[in-house]
Specification:
alpha+beta, 4-stranded mixed beta sheet, 6 strands
């Protein structure tokens, strides 16, 4: 009996993870500026890319209050770098002249379906190569994630300060 009581008490004392739900829509991805793979299969690359972005947006949403929904409608992505021909191969070259860009709209919806905050976002990191992050050093989307981190911290500052 004591073991059950201790087990129940343990579960009650563990803080529950609070997170907003996430709803991501990819609006007409065929028209995005640059989500091309180097030598990878284009459909497979796009699916993997969208999965990575969805996981990252979900990770960001863990910082928001639970019972809210963060809706994101992505309308354009231009990955850092550009795919260029290198002999018979296509490879992604990262240079200052090819900064990451992203366009999307977002809404943070409360449990009563009222809109807490919303906006249209145009992200562009012209100095992306000067921003180094050990956190993302081996990540293929490191420049895009740094850009999204900055947007998220600025946009949801008041909510993040209250946590």
């Amino acid at each position: 009996m004591n073991q059950i009581f201790i087990l129940l008490l343990t579960f009650l004392l563990i803080p529950s993870a609070t997170a907003a739900d996430i709803d991501i829509r990819w609006n007409n991805p065929a028209k995005y500026n640059d989500i091309r793979a180097g030598e990878n299969n284009h459909k497979q690359f796009r699916k993997q890319l969208f999965d990575k972005f969805e996981k990252y947006f979900s990770k960001l949403a863990t910082q928001l209050p639970e019972q809210q929904t963060l809706k994101i409608k992505v309308t354009n992505i231009d990955l850092a770098g550009s795919t260029l021909h290198a002999g018979i191969n296509r490879i992604r070259i990262i240079k200052e002249t090819y900064p990451p860009r992203m366009k999307f709209s977002y809404q943070l919806i409360n449990v009563d379906q009222s809109i807490e905050i919303e906006g249209d976002v145009v992200l562009n990191s012209m100095i992306f190569m000067m921003k180094r992050s050990v956190k993302y050093r081996n990540d293929t989307l490191k420049y895009e994630k740094i850009m999204l981190d900055k947007w998220f911290a600025e946009t949801f500052k008041s909510m993040l300060d209250n946590k």
